[in-house]
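step=encode ok
step=design start
structure_in=
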């Protein structure tokens, strides 16, 4: 099978936020998929950022921190106080 057309005949819906959907959509198109971009989520700052700042200030109190998305990693990494000691971290995906 031609790897350039692995997804020929398939229709794929990309549900990532609108500003993050196109790289994945284009990669799928390159594999032959018919792609529909339908953003179902949006990424926003926490309603109460003080709670996140408080949790990040107490990182050494935790055994593990688990992240479910690259967006969560970016949001937390940006708010970690200088010199904070990270516990073990787990992530979904790369």
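sequence_out=
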């Amino acid at each position: 099978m031609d790897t350039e057309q692995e997804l020929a005949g398939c229709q794929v819906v990309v549900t990532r936020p609108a500003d993050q959907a196109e790289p994945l959509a284009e990669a799928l198109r390159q594999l032959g998929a018919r792609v529909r971009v339908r953003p179902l989520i949006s990424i926003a700052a926490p309603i109460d950022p003080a709670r996140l700042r408080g949790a990040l200030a107490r990182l050494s109190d935790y055994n593990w921190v688990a992240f479910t998305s690259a967006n969560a990693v970016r949001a937390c990494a940006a708010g970690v106080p200088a010199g904070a000691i990270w516990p073990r971290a787990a992530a979904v995906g790369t």
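step=design ok
step=annotate ok -> The CA atoms of residues 1 and 7 lie 10 Å apart.
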